[in-house]
Amino acid sequence: MADVRRLRHKAGLTLVEVLVAMTILASTLASFLAVFMMNQRTVVVANNQQQAMNQARGVMEDLFSHAYYDPALSAGNHAVDGRCAYTVSEANSMKTVAVRVTWTNALQRQASSFVLTSALSYAIHR
């Protein structure tokens, strides 16, 4: 009988307390997991945008190396590759160049694009 009383007064956790603690732990871990997944998506989108920006800048720098009347800077639409193209329009000895890079965002399953626009003047860019 003394052994039974000693067992009842022994410190420990009941099954209910363990289940409550596990529920709290599981919900906390689930919220952390959701935050990490959201951050991963943000990093992927930012990486895609950075790659598009770098490609557009590269194309723009290449176009600026051409002479003002070079065929690469003729008015109209020009394809660079499957995801990059540029448009040249001309008015009053000024050419406006818009480079567009498009890509499909795998996480959001939608098309995205980045456009870089600049102007060339005949007086400056001969």
What distance separates the N and C termini?
106 Å
- Report the average pLDDT across residues: 87
Q: What fraction of residues sit in β-strands? A: 25-35%
Order of helices and strands: HHEEEE
Shape: rod-shaped
Strand order of the largest sheet: 1-2-3-4
3D architecture notes:
By secondary structure, the protein is an alpha+beta fold. It has one domain. The chain is 45% helix and 30% strand. The protein contains 2 helices and 4 strands, in the order H-H-E-E-E-E. It has helices at 2-8, 15-64; strands spanning 76-81, 84-91, 94-105, 110-121. The protein has a 4-stranded antiparallel beta sheet with strand order 1-2-3-4. A hairpin with a 2-residue loop joins strand 2 and strand 3 (94-105). The longest helix is centred in the first third of the chain and has 50 residues, at 15-64. The radius of gyration is 31 Å and the shape is rod-shaped. 7% of the residues are buried. The mean pLDDT is 87.
Summarize, please.
With 126 residues, this protein is of the alpha+beta class. It is 45% helix and 30% strand.
Secondary structure elements and pairings:
Layout: H1 2-8, H2 15-64, E1 76-81, E2 84-91, E3 94-105, E4 110-121
Antiparallel strand pairs: 1-2, 2-3, 3-4
Key terms:
single chain, 126 residues, alpha+beta, 2 helices, 45% helix, 30% strand
